Every structure is written in C-alpha cells, then in structure tokens.
C-alpha cells in the first residue's frame, strides 16, 4: 500500500490546497475591504449611485476632483442601474453594510429613515462640515423629514408633458400655459381626428401625475402616514382613463407594451406623454420626430400643482466617517466645477453656485432649463408633500394596476380597492 | 429493401416515405421555434442600436459591426474583459468546489454506514426546500461580520462545503447504483475509504460529476443575485452585472452593445458544454461491470 499512501496524501494535499485557496481569498478581502482608516490618516468612503454610462463617467470625474482637493479621503465608487441598485441596497441596509454616501430619491426617504439607515446631516451642518445654504427654489426641503436633514438635493426636476412637436403642429393645436384638462383632451381629440394617432400614452397610471391632479384640487397623493384621497376619487380617475382608452384617445395598451422598452411617444403611437422633465432627452435619441416640453394641464386655469422633485445624496447613519461624508456631500453640491461636469444629468443644478457655473449648449438641456424657469416664474411651484414609508412600492403598484385597468382586465372600482389594500400592506411593511 | 420487392409493395413504401417527410418537416418546425431566439439575438447584434427595439425584422438590413467594436471601449470606464475574467474565475471555482465537496459527501452517504445517516440525508434534502430569499439576509450578515463582502468568498464558500444539496443527492443516487462488489473487492485488496473514493467510486461516477459540473458552471455564469449583493467594486463585477450597466432607465439604453455582449457571453457556456458532453456519453457507456 505504499502507492496507496501516496495517493491519499496527494488527495489530502489537494483538499488542503483548495481550502487554503478559499482562505487566501478571504485574507485579501480583509486586507482591502473594511475601508476604514489606515496609518497615515487616509480614510476611504464608499459612494454608490444608479444611472447610465454618461452619469457614471461624469461622477467619476467629480470624484477625481474631490480626491485631488481632499487628499486624505479616498472614494470607492459603486454603480449599477436603478432596479439593481435598490435591490442591492435593501439587502445591504438590512445587513448593516450600506455605502457611506449614496444617491437617493424622495420616495425612499421615510422608508430608510424609519429603519435608522440615514445620517442626519443637520448635525453635520451645525458642526460646520457641510453648508445648507444657497439652494434654489426651496429644494432643500425635499430632503427633510421630521426636522431632520436626511438627504441633500443635487438637482431639481418637475413633471412635464412631453409632446411630439410635429404632430401638434400638423393638427394645429397649441399647448399653452394654464390650459385646462378639458382643453388638453380636446387637443388630443383633434390630433386623433386629423392624424389618426392616439393623443396620450397612458397618463392615468402615473402616480406623480395623479398627485398633481389631486394637488390642483387641494389634496395630495400622500399624507404623512396614509393615502390622501378616497377610493371613489381614484375610481373616477381610472374610469375616465379607461373611457379614453376605449375611444382611442389614449394609445392601445397592448401596442404600448409591444414597443417597450421604447416609449409609445417615440414609437409614434401617441402625441404626448407625461414624465419628469429631465427624462425627456431619451425621446430625441429614440424617435424620429422632434419633441418638446409642454405645460401640465390645470383644473382652474392657473395652478398646475407642480413642485420640484430631486435626486439627492444621503449618508449612512452607521458610517465610521460622518465628517468626511458631510465634506464629500458639501463638495458635490456646492463646488462650481462639479456643477460644470455634471450638467443637468440629475436635474437642474440645485445650488446657485453650481447652477451659475453651467451653461447648457444642447437644445434638450436648454429646453429643460427654460421649462423650469417658466414654471418657477408662473409662481405655481408648491411645496413637496410627504412620501411615507412604502411610497416606492405604491408607485409601482399604481403603474401595474393602472395598466390592468387600461387593458380592461380589472374594473376601475375593483382596481381602486386593490390599490388601497396594497397600500395598506406597504405602509405596514 | 431490394429492387425485386419494391414494385411489389409500392403503397407501403410510399406511405413510409411520406411519413418520414412529415416527421422531418415537423422536427424542423420545432427546431425553428427553439432556435428563433438565438437567431434573433445574432441578428440584433448586427443591427444599429436604434433598430433593435424599433424594427421587427429578424435580420439586419445592413449588418454593422459597431456593437462588437464598441465593446472594446468598455463601459463606464471598465473593460469588458474584466467582467469575463471575473465570471470565469467564479464559475471555475464553483465547479471545483461542487465537484470536490459534493462527491466526497455523496460517497459518505452512499457507501458508509454510520449512525444518523438517514436523518442527516433527510435534513440535507430538506435544505432544498429553503427558498433563497430566506437565506439571503442572514448569509449577508454572516459574511459582513466576517468582512468578506466584496470578495468571491461568499459566492463560492458554500460550494466548497457541499451545500448544493441537489448535486449531492444526484451523486448519492448514482453511487448507490454502482455495484457493491467493486468497493468490496477494493476493500479486500486493502483500500481504505479515501482510496476507494478516489480510485474506484470517483472515476465510475464520471457521468454524475460531469452533469453537476456543467450545471454548476452554467448556474455560476448566469448568477445575478449573488454577485449583485456581494460584489461592490465595479471592477469585480461579473458578466451578468456588466450587462445591466448598458441599461439606463432615465436616458438612452445601449441595447446594441448589450446584445453583442450577451452573444459573446454565450460562448464560454457553449464551449464548456461542448468540451464535457463527450465525457458524459463516454461515461454512460463505460460505467458498471464489464466482463
């Protein structure tokens, strides 16, 4: 069994080698992970965001700039797309390991504040690590919850109506500031009659648009802890919507589904679509026509119900380096050079220093800037209303259930009931 | 069939031939359905990015190379080859881990009588019923406390510890089918368990091992959730995460590069299968007692 002994030893050696390899990987991990301070006082913070390639390239430039000005702080970037970002973030937050600084949006603030994940930047500002001055049009309030500053806006955007300029011109209809819903739907009817295409791509499934409609009528989509409207309100909204699908005023939902991921507007199925103004560059890239921003229809001929929403930066409450996190956020929202690099990628720049540093040159960005200035000048910008914990889930449910209504699979009354019960679960979660 | 009999049975022959044609046409029709998505992906990878979501054509009117040549520039400052290298390292480690640990565990369950064997076997099968999502956060917390996030360890450690119950089960069933006489003979010749495992059972279990290896490779190569949760540094991302980077919900997604990269990502999986499938058939034919 001399030979046998050898083989056995070899087997054991191999097995040992394998486990050593695993242990070895672990050792490297401990060496470069952790991200805390090293001997010379340099600290590393993790910075995570979602977005496409242009945003990522711009942000990496701003990080390089930051590291040059703050040589003692290293920033480790982490990025992916929107859905993957939040899936990952949820696990990281539950596991106590979210990034030190991350991009955030209003729908997620209360959700993660409730779980104690978000750093209160007010105390950091009081300590002088971060300035909360010079924010335009009161957008700073977007990051405030219960007297705490749990996020700082990097940009501002608002809902808009994106229209197919050629279709509107051919049909001879005009979108004017302060037009009413009746005038809007009349215009769509003219487009449908003259051009044989639908007017809208499915307005009634968009939570943020319904929010504007409710705000025009003295309500809002959310209160601090609940929905701000009744089942009857929503039933009526969806009944009207479904009527307009049947009459062809709103594009056939089956066709809208078929052209995805392309938008039904850029596919030429309809002449208008409601969305956030900073998303509007996609239409020029996707479609053959020319696109522009038009005002939101109103109920009383004046009030659009609009407010400025924001992408923001938040810090992790458990970070080992709150001071550096605050300094980093301060740099990212106030430094003029950062503003020049980022442009309007995350909305119109939130602070005056950055807004003045960037001069848009392409028509899309110029259009967005002109649009927001027009809305601000009209004096219709209201304050953002609360987004309770669970708002992100409800937004998705609103889109899905609204889609079922459009396809005629759910009656509006049942759909409204379904949304209310899903909302109840989301608030409890 | 000889020429003498042919005129005698024209009807039967005719019927057989038409039956055969119908069978072939049917088989080709099914093949077309199965291959359609593959052909679509190949076609789309040669279309300009804009036409991919706009047109319904299967093949491009004018093939373009820009989707593939664009891959050379990388995405968001990361080279595409690093995604492939990371996936390859992950998949190879996963295969090594599953093959080593599962076969050893399976040997114990199949060939050794020990107290509590049936209970342990049942418990192991029971882990198959645990949904991934139940384990996700506890596992994450564990690896976080060990400071092992942002490494491959959380992804492959389990594979080296025989936690892939399905493959253990597969190998146990296969090893139980091996003739007992073989390991009894080895015992008589003086082999211990390790020697019996290494020289007798392992070579004979080749079909089960190859099957496990192929499935593990494909699973690891396609794994999205694991790398998404555990890997933070974009330079460490695998192919499945890299593909997501081409998406942009707020701007313009680069579908051309995404599809070109998906196509390239298929190559290692197909190559792995091609390389090992002959062993699979080989192994089937030679296992068991001969002569």
TrEMBL record, chain A:
Keywords: Lipoprotein. This is Lipoprotein. It comes from Streptomyces pilosus. The keyword Lipoprotein applies. Transmembrane segments: none annotated. The keyword Endoplasmic reticulum does not apply. InterPro entries: Bact_solute-bd_prot1, SBP, TAT_signal. PANTHER family: ABC TRANSPORTER SUBSTRATE-BINDING PROTEIN, ARABINOSE-BINDING PROTEIN-RELATED.
Automatic annotation (TrEMBL), chain B:
It is found in: Cell membrane. The chain crosses the membrane at residues 21-42, 88-110, 119-140, 152-175, 196-218, 255-276. Keywords: Cell membrane, Membrane, Transmembrane, Transmembrane helix, Transport. Residues 84-276 form the ABC transmembrane type-1 domain. The keyword Transmembrane helix applies. One of its GO terms (cellular component) is plasma membrane. It holds the Pfam family BPD_transp_1. GO terms for biological process: transmembrane transport. It is a multi-pass membrane protein. Belongs to the binding-protein-dependent transport system permease family. This is Sugar ABC transporter permease. It comes from Streptomyces pilosus. The lineage of its organism: Bacteria, Bacillati, Actinomycetota, Actinomycetes, Kitasatosporales.
